[in-house]
Amino acid sequence: MEQTTLAALSAFALVSSITPGPNNMMLMASGANFGLRHTVPHALGVGIGFTLMIVLVGVGLMGLFDLFPVLNIILKVVSVAYLLWLAWKIANAAAPDTAGSARGKPMSFFQAVMFQWVNPKAWSMALTAIALYAPDRNFAAVLLVAVIFGIINLPSTSLWAVMGVSLRGWLSSPARLKAFNWTMAALLVGSLALLI
Q1: What is the pTM of this model?
Q2: Superkingdom, according to UniProt (predicted)?
Q3: Which terminus of the chain has fewer Cβ atoms in its 10 Å neighbourhood, N or C?
Q4: Long-range CB contacts (< 8 A, 24+ apart) of 121-126?
C-alpha cells in the first residue's frame, strides 16, 4: 500500500472511530456511570471486536451479503431492536453509588465484541474500509486495514470513556445524571439514522 493511501486509510480510521456513534455513546455513558476501571473491558471489546470484524468482513462476509441481500434486512431489524433495548438500559441506569439490584453493570468485553455485529456504524465503517482500501479482498490488504483500524480505533473510542469519567463529579446530582443518561440514550437512538 502506498504512503498516500496509507495516510488516507489512517485519516478515515481516525474520523470514523472518533466521531459519535453507538460505541462512543455507550462508552461515554459507561465511563460516567461506572468509572474508567470498570469501562476498560468494554473499550477493549470495542477495539478488538471491531478489528476482528474488519478481517471477517474482508475475507468473506462482504461476499455473503452480496450473495444474499435479505441478510441486510435481517441485520437492520436485529440492530434496531438491540440498540433500542440498549438505549432503554442507558436511560434507566441507576446512579453509580446506588445500592440495590436496580443498579446496572457495565458492558463486558465479550458483550462489546459481540455488539460490533449489530452496530450499524461498525458495519458501515468495515464495509467502506474494505471497499475503499482492500477492494480485491486480498488477505494481506484486509489484514493491513484491520491493523490500522485496531491501532487507531481503541484510543479514539477510549477518549469517550474518559470524557464520561470527567463528567462524574458534575453528574453526582441525580437529576443531572438522569438527564445525561436520557441524552445518551436519545443519541444512541439517533444513531439509528445510519441504517436508513
Answers
A1: 0.80
A2: Bacteria
A3: C
A4: 121/16, 121/21, 121/22, 121/23, 121/191, 121/194, 122/21, 122/22, 122/23, 122/50, 122/53, 123/57, 123/75, 123/79, 124/194, 125/16, 125/17, 125/50, 125/149, 126/50, 126/53, 126/54, 126/57, 126/58
Other Cβ atoms closer than 10 A to 141: 16
pLDDT tens profile 133-183: 998 889 999 999 999 999 999 999 999 999 999 988 888 888 888 888 888
| Burial zone of 152 (CB within 10 Å; 0-12 exposed, 13-18 middle, 19+ buried) | buried
Domain ranges of the chain: 31-93+105-195
Locate 171 and state its grid cell: 453528574
Nearest-10 Cα torsion for 153, 83, 76, 129 = -10
Task: Name which of 179, 177, 153 is nearest 34 in CA terms.
Answer: 177
Question: DSSP string covering 103-125, please?
Answer: ---PPPHHHHHHHGGG-HHHHHH
To the nearest 10 degrees (0 to 180), the angle between helices 139-166 and 3-18 is: 40
